[in-house]
Every structure is written in C-alpha cells, then in structure tokens.
Amino acid sequence: MKDSVSSLLGKGALSEGRVAQKIVAKKLIVGVIGLGQIGLMTATVVASRGFTTVGADVNRRIVSKVALGKTHIDEPGLDKLLKNNIRVRRLSTTTDVEQLTKESDVLIVCVQTPLSREGRPDLSFLEQACRLLGRNLSRGKLISVESSIPPGTTENFIAPTIEGESGLKCGSDLWLAHCPERLSPGRALEELRKGPRVVGGYNKSSGNMISRFYREITEGELLVTDARTAEVVKLAENTARDVGIAFANELALLCERLGVDASSVINLANSHPRVRILQPGPGVGGPCLPKDPFLLTFFAEAMGFRPKLIRAAREVNDAMPEHAIELVQQGLAEATKQIKSSKVAVLGTAYKGNVRDTRESPARLVIRGLLGMGAKVTVFDPRADESFGAPRARTIQEAVVGADCIIILTEHDEFRGMKLRNLVKAMRVKPILVDTRHLIDPTKATEAGFIFRGVGYGLIHRPQIPTQLFRPWT
Ligand code: SAJ
After folding, report:
1. How high is the pLDDT of residue 260?
2. Residue 281: CB within 6 Å of ligand 1?
3. Mean pLDDT across the stretch 137-165?
4. What are the domain boundaries of the chain?
5. φ, ψ at 177 (rounded to 5°)
6. Distance of CA 248 from the midpoint of ligand 1 (Å)
7. What is the number of the ligand 1 atom nearest to the C-alpha of 148?
8. Which of 142, 172, 207, 298 is most exposed, with the fewest beta carbons within 10 Å of its own?
9. What is the number of other CB atoms lying within 10 angstroms of the CB of residue 429?
10. What is the DSSP string of 208-230?
11. Distance CA 93, CA 235 (A)
12. What is the pLDDT of residue 13?
C-alpha cells in the first residue's frame, strides 16, 4: 500500500500527529475481522463515515453474500446502508485476513468469545485472529478489539500473542485498545453512530490514538480509560442488567405468592425518582446477558473470589422458563385439563420483542419442556423462523385454533392488540391465556372468557397472611 500509515512512519518513533491527520481526512483503510452481527454492523457504519473498509470472515458464504450487498442479519436500516456502501465501493469483503492485515491501517477485531461446554471463556477464535494479525502486522497500526473479553485479556493474552508473532511492541510500535461493542439488536445502527464509547487503551497513547479514530465514527462521548477497566465496564453493564432483571423476576414470584400484581407494583415503585425496576419475564436470552456474567467472574473465581449476587441472579433468571411452564400447568389444572392431552399455542420465539433473533431464547426451554410433558405445541412468531422443534403456524389464528392454552413469550408489537374474544372463539372450552410479558390486561382477558395467568400476576388468589406472623410473641 503506497501511502499506508506504516510506510509514512518509517523506523522512528510513531508520529501521532501525522496519523491523526490521516484519521480526520479519512485516508486510512479499516479492516474489520469477523462479519457476525457486531462486525458487519461496525464495518457498514465505519464505511458510511467515509473510510475505505474491508470486512473479513472465514465463512465464505457470509463473505460472498455481504459482497453482493445482502445481509444475514436482521437489523432495521442495515440492508440499505450496506447496499449503498458496497455500491460506491467503500465497503468490500474478503476471506483473506492476512492480506487484510497487511493492507489495513486500522484493524477492528469482532470475533466471537463464547463459553465452552464446561462454562469456561473460549478465547480460541480470538487467539486465532491475534496470531494471524501478529504474523502480518507492521508498525504504526491501530488495533481495536471490540469482542467481549474477560478482564485482563488485552494485557495478558492479546498483547503477548500479537507481540510473540510480530516481534513488535504494543503501545510503542503499534496502538492497541479494547473498545467494547455496545449495540442492542433492534436499534444498533443508531447506537453505533450516536452512542458513547469506552476506549480502553493498552497504554495512554493507544487510548488517545484509538479514541481519535472512534471520534470519526460516533457522535457520542468518548470515555478513555485503561484496557482492563474497559473490559470490566463492558461485562459489568450486561451483568448489572442481568441482576436487575433477576430482581424483577424474584419480585414477580413474590407478588404471585402475596396476591399482588407485580406490574402495578413496578409501575408505582418506578414513580420514585431514584427507583427503576426492570420487567419480569420468561427468562433472559440473547447473545450477551446469559454469558457476560460468567466472563466477568470466571478468572476472579479461579483466583479465589466467590461471587454470590451475580451467580444467584443467573440462577433466578435461568429458573424462569420452568416457572412459565408451571403457569401453564396452573391454568390447565383450573380448567381440569391434563398437559399431556392439551394443545398449547406458543406466541413468540425471539429472545426479546420486535427482533427475529432467537439466540439463547427462553422459548427454547419452554417449548422443549412442554413437548417433553406430552403437550401438542404450535408456535407462531411473526419475525423469527425458529420454532425449537415444534410445528410452526403462519398466523396467530392458525396457531390458536383448537388450542387449550396460549402462552405469550415475546413482547412483539403484533401481540399487543390481539382481539381476545376472537381468540377465545377459536379455542377449545375453558381456554387459558398465560402472559409472561405483561402485554395483556388481565381483566380484559378474564372478561373475554380466558382463565388468566401471568408472570407476577398474583391477583388470582390473595392469601390470608397467617395472623401469628404479625404477633409471634403472643
Ligand atoms: N429482559 C427482561 N426484562 C427487562 C429487560 C430485558 O426480561 O426488563 C430480557 C429480554 O427479554 C431478553 C434479555 O433480557 O431476553 C436481554 O435483553 P436486553 O434488551 O436486556 O439485552 P440485549 O442482549 O438485546 O443487549 C444487551 C444490551 N445491554 C444493556 O442494555 C446493558 C446492549 O446495550 C448491549 O450492547 C448488548 O447486550 C451486547 O451486545 O452486549
């Protein structure tokens, strides 16, 4: 590459000023490694900001698809933005990471960091990417790792791997930072373009240089810190949400026991200016929340720290699909029906509302559980194709016809305005509605003829609280 950063720099000290000028002038080539959800959206947004961008993936099918301007990811606005950038040739794709590394000035690593079967962080994809990078690097490159990684990974794993392969020194021959991705499926492009970003530099100059690059990508604030802090920040964000949801779920179970409606409790409590309780549901899914608490705690645990709250929150959330099944059983018991001979219509398999993503969706466990108990299950999701082994219906009506029970698992907008009386008419006698997402007004459901159950809905039965509990001394 004639005017690449490395050729400009020569052998002397890295010149931050000259590279910074090239960043502002968008004269750098950006290589994005990994064209999964994060990588593809990142590459598209970086290209749309005016940088010549190349996306690489080992999966040839994805690479050829993206090269034609087609996406394998369902994200509002992505399709159009990708097509535009491919058309004007600002974005291209390759399977050749080695060539990409040689030609790019900025490298953004977006490979997956899953948990292994034994629940350990699996950094093999990251290691492979760092080795390939290291073997093909030259001085003066900017490397940003966006993948979620356990605390200490940049310092103790990424930098030594790159240095070992390249013979270059991170922080002096090249700039390295961990800039955790922060995009929520459904509004990801907006968050990439406008959201604040944390830039965790391997050293001070890495943090400064790489934040200059992100300055050109997002209009949001750039918060520069060290790499290990950034690693903890990312995982803490999702763990805090997981713990918050676990509180909402436990509160919902408590309200069911006490004969109170959790939905009213949460709305009223949230009128307090410093309280923000999240929503209970059928469990926590998606690619991040079920995994990130383990990435956060795994190494600390190996070093002798015993997390209590974080682990308990995971247990509470993991138990919710089972509770959703219990609500179906409760409803069927009230209708004097057996689960074995019943037909259950499941509405929603996506892990959250208004997306088609079903990764780690609680619907998987609910559907498998119902099928395992002998129920006949039919699934309808207006957005997701996955049905977790149950037959799929094409419409709500088709799913509910002849059903004994409906269970709502995802808060898609399509399920909000359902005509309850029409559903009742299509179902068998004593129809049951289980709402795990607080989409349906329980009074309206009962008026329409349903036996109603809901996560956190305790108004079915308000138990007498034993009087001796109030005066244990008498
Ligand atoms: N959920 C509830 N109750 C709630 C909120 C969510 O039960 O009040 C459930 C959802 O239904 C879903 C799961 O939690 O099953 C996760 O949904 P989410 O919207 O909380 O999170 P994700 O996985 O779609 O995206 C998260 C986001 N993190 C935070 O909000 C802290 C996003 O900003 C991150 O970029 C993303 O993880 C990521 O990639 O790390």
Report:
1. 97
2. yes
3. 97
4. 5-220, 248-474
5. -150, 155
6. 14
7. 40
8. 172
9. 9
10. HHHHHHHHTT-SS-EEEEEHHHH
11. 30
12. 57
For the chain, how are helix, strand and coil distributed in percent, rounded to 5?
A: 45, 15, 40
d(CA 164, CA 452): 62
Determine contact, residues 163/129, Cβ cutoff 8 Å.
Answer: no
CB of 209 closer than 8 Å to CB of 62: no
3-state secondary structure string across 242-253: HHHHHHHHHHHH
Residue 454 has φ and ψ, to the nearest 5°, of -150, 150
Residue 288 annotated in active site: yes
Amino acid at 333: A
User: What does the pLDDT read at residue 472?
Assistant: 84
First to last CA, the chain: 88
Cα of 474 vs centre of ligand 1, distance in Å, is 49
Q: Which of 41, 110, 179, 184 to mutate to test the pocket of ligand 1 (most atoms within 8 A of CB)?
A: 184
Beta carbons within 8 Å of 167's beta carbon, 6+ residues apart: none
pLDDT at 5 over 70: no
Q: Which atom of ligand 1 is nearest the CA belonging to 38?
A: 39
For ligand 1, atom 10, name the residue with the nearest CA: 352
Catalytic residue among 234, 291, 337, 352: 234
Does ligand 1 have an atom closer than 6 angstroms to the CB of 286? Answer: yes
Of 288, 291, 352, 405, the catalytic one is 288
**37 contacts 110 by C-beta, under 8 angstroms:** no
Superfamily of the domain at 5-220: NAD(P)-binding Rossmann-like Domain (3.40.50.720)
pLDDT in tens, 89-143: 999 999 999 999 999 999 999 999 999 999 899 999 999 999 999 999 999 999 9
State which ligand 1 atom lies nearest to the alpha carbon of 249: 7
Give residue 183's pLDDT. 86
In which residue are the tokens 């240095």 written? 163
Regarding the beta carbon of 185 and ligand 1, being less than 6 Å apart is answered yes
Q: Give the class (CATH, top level) of 248-474.
A: alpha beta
| Residues 6+ positions from 192 with CB-CB distance below 8 Å | 41, 42, 45, 183, 217, 218
For residue 289, the CA-to-ligand 1 centroid distance in Å is 6
- Does 184 contact ligand 1 (Cβ within 6 A)? yes
**Which residue's CA is the closest to the ligand 1 atom numbered 32?**
184
Centre of ligand 1 to C-alpha 133, Å, is 32
To the query of whether residue 22 is one of the catalytic residues in this protein, the response is: no
Q: What are 81's two structure tokens?
A: 């933005």
CA angle 370, 241, 143 (to 5 degrees): 115
Is 233 touching ligand 1 by the criterion CB < 6 Å? Answer: no
5-220 and 248-474 in the same fold: yes
pLDDT band at residue 2 under the 50/70/90 scheme = very low
